[in-house]
Write a structure and sequence with these properties.
mainly alpha, de novo design (two linked rop proteins), 3 helices, about 0% strand, elongated
């Protein structure tokens, strides 16, 4: 059975779960990080399902997979910064 929408993709659903988790965790960062690391983590997390959805509408399947990988890379880099600056040990 063909998928009717990107919302049926398991990877998109898991990416949305990640967004919810990141927003919860970023609330634990100090207020000084509200416009810094917290904002970057949130924007990076949101870009993953957004890019998957955007790529889903394209003609080639690989385009949405590539978009998700690129977004994921940015998120990983932001997430690795938190422990290095003394957050989320």
């Amino acid at each position: 059975m063909a998928l009717k929408t990107y919302r049926e993709l398991e990877v998109w659903q898991k990416a949305m779960d990640l967004v919810v988790s990141v927003y919860r965790l970023s609330g634990e960062l100090p207020a000084t990080e509200k416009y810094g690391l917290a904002s970057q983590l949130q924007r990076s997390a949101v870009s993953i399902p957004a890019n998957i959805a955007e790529g889903y509408g394209r003609s080639h399947r690989g385009e949405y997979l590539t978009a998700g990988r690129v977004s994921g890379s940015g998120f990983r880099v932001s997430g690795m910064a938190a422990p290095r600056i003394g957050q989320w040990r």
